[in-house]
Design brief:
single chain, 248 residues, alpha+beta, GMP Synthetase, Chain A, domain 3, 2 domains, 3-stranded mixed β-sheet, 7 helices, 12 strands, ANL_N_sf, lipid metabolism, fatty acid metabolism, long-chain-fatty-acid--CoA ligase, ATP-binding
Length: 248
């Protein structure tokens, strides 16, 4: 991550196992700490789990002109600078890290169900119609909704399948067609169930957008990670509308 000068963990050149990020880099300290709210603890079995903290000379002093974020993410302990990554990992018997969740992605719904937005998104993004997506959750509700950036060619195929075959329709126009939205939602539900997602994790409504999410728009980071706060602001009206229609 940027806050640690891209230093953290790395795989050995002769390590061919998949699903992990390797062990700590040279002169880097990594430890896990409990995150009780997410039910991740360092005494979990078979492997300890918790939030990754990175310490060492590579860790930045803080964020430029962002004192609140700096206070929440950086601290000094034992003469060493530490960074709270927000990533949840487990450490296997070989000392390798496996990222399993992210604190900001875990939300609690109305009836107490915890869901990982990032985990659900990563599975649903394997749909061929999805270029990018963001799932939104509200702790006062028991359903999630999503905003999807669709792939134009695939969306045209879906539109044709529901009787909309005008080749001159733009992506923006296709995104507004109710039949197309319903068809995408239907495919999303089927795909989610095939991926083993619970009904809480599968969005109950979707909004299709023709806006590309790039670092220039401020909606994703340079590493193409979702900036949920900015996305929430950008699509607040759409999210409220989806929840309103679910109540009707």
């Amino acid at each position: 991550c940027t806050e640690t000068a891209s230093c953290g963990a790395g795989m050995n050149i002769d390590d061919y196992k998949t699903g992990h990020t390797g062990g700590p880099c040279l002169n880097i300290y990594i430890k896990l700490v409990d995150w009780a709210e997410g039910n991740y603890r360092t005494n979990d079995m078979p492997y300890p789990r918790g939030e990754i903290l990175i310490g060492g000379p590579c860790v930045a002093k803080g964020y430029f002109k962002l004192p609140n974020e700096t206070e929440n993410s950086f601290f000094e302990e034992g003469g060493m600078q530490w960074f709270r990554t927000g990533d949840i990992a487990e450490i296997d018997n070989y000392g390798c890290l496996k990222i399993i969740d992210r604190k900001k992605d875990l939300v609690k719904l109305k009836h107490g169900e915890y869901i990982s937005l990032g985990s659900a998104e990563s599975l649903l993004k394997t749909m061929n119609v999805v270029d990018n997506m963001c799932i939104f959750a509200d702790s006062t509700r028991d359903q999630t909704v999503a905003v999807i950036v669709p792939v134009l060619d695939v969306l045209r195929s879906i539109a044709a399948a529901v009787g909309i075959k005008d080749p001159n329709l733009t992506l923006e126009q296709l995104c507004e067609e109710e039949k197309v939205i319903d068809a995408v939602l239907k495919e999303l539900r089927l795909h989610g169930r095939r991926c083993g997602l619970s009904r809480w994790e599968i969005p109950a409504a979707v909004h299709l957008t023709n806006e590309l999410w790039t670092p220039d728009t401020g909606l994703v980071t340079a590493a193409m990670k979702l900036r949920r706060t900015q996305l929430g602001q950008q699509y607040r009206a759409m999210v409220l509308d989806m929840y309103s229609r679910l109540q009707d």
